[in-house]
Amino acid sequence: MKKQIAAILIGCTLTLTACGSADGEVSTETTASAGSADTISDTSDVQSAKEQTIIETVGISKPEPVQIALVTSSGGLEDESFNQSAWEGLQRAVGTYGCEPLYAETRSDTTFKDNLDNVIAQGGDLCWGIGYSCAEDMLKAAQEHPEISFAIIDNYFEDTPDNMTGVMFRAEESSFLVGYIAACVSETGKIGFVGGMKNEVIEQFRYGYMAGAYYADKENGKTTEVLFEYSDTFSDSSKGKVLADTLYDNGCDVVFHAAGETGLGVIESAKEHDLYVIGADKDQSYLAPENVIASAEKFVSVALYSLSGQFISGENIGGQTVSLGLAENAVGISSQHSLYSDEIYNKMLVLKDEIIAGTIVPPTDEESFTAFAK
After folding, report:
1. Contact 67/149 with Cβ under 8 angstroms?
2. Which residue of 48, 89, 281, 351 sits 20 to 30 Å from the alpha carbon of 301, by its own alpha carbon?
3. What's the rounded Cα separation, in Å, for the pair 336 and 294?
4. Which CATH topology does 5-169+299-328 take?
5. Pick from 303, 283, 307: which is nearest to 295 by CA?
6. Do 282 and 88 contact (CB within 8 A), yes or no?
7. Burial letters 142-173, b for 16+ CB under 10 A, else e
8. Residue 105 pLDDT more than 60?
9. Does domain 171-298+341-373 have CATH number 3.40.50.2300?
10. What are 124-177's pLDDT values in tens digits?
11. Which of 20-29, 194-203, 211-220, 283-292 has the lowest average pLDDT?
């Protein structure tokens, strides 16, 4: 079995220049099939200052530009979530390393394969697939094209091909912290969770969140009930709003979403109910400053930028699964906390350090949650 687990240590000192600067504009390549609902777009570089400070820039020169390809999951580049974060990572790679970008927005999971085939045909040297739903197509492509390298976000393989890199995030760690915050601030004793799909990745968010709330209850002598819903889609904000409406109407005063673009509907519901919501993947406080109490961030851009840089420099990144969490600065909590107290925020930072140290190990599924609760 060739499954390996590795961790990337990412520096925290340098600031990057945006790809839209004099380093050169990101060129667009038409990669969607004719007649497909998928589109290619040239989205402006939205740089997060926080993410900039946790990326270590390595000077690299290559005689010929390497082509780095990105094929999104459903939701597209502007989902305000992990697709957009991946896009930002690609733009930074272009600006820093001088690589050539290929990218395609997938609007339906059924057309991901067509988009992937097209970027392969156009000469992609390293092809990124975003999200576990593309795993089967990515694995098949890696087997059919051993001369090309592939990398996938949020998936691992039991037998990883030599030309494939899996990237997994320990989302339960940041979810534990926002669960702690949610239980501390809740006045109704009910908090909610909206997941995009019921699968291994999203369950990390849910059970980490539940464990953080459980920890807060034990500390504060409270009992908090966690209600949850699944949308079965990451690209339907209207469905996210309906599910969040149900949670708020049933007494939840804080709802955490891990649902991609669907989560935008959860945020809209929080605004209408004038209650709290917890964002995911990016700091989403700018979407509803009076309602987004915190965000469980997942820096897909860091993974894409760093691994692409290693690939361009000639390192062999294939045949392994990379595990990233708080210790690698690849997940985190938004620093803004105007909607809850400094006391809660500072306690959360202590818990963060304990997770990094291994004193607290947040659960990822029902079995590990049961063990944690004991």
Report:
1. no
2. 351
3. 7
4. Rossmann fold (3.40.50)
5. 283
6. no
7. beeeeebbbbbbbbbbeebbebbbbbbbbbbb
8. yes
9. yes
10. 999 999 988 899 999 999 999 999 999 999 999 999 999 999 999 999 999 999
11. 20-29
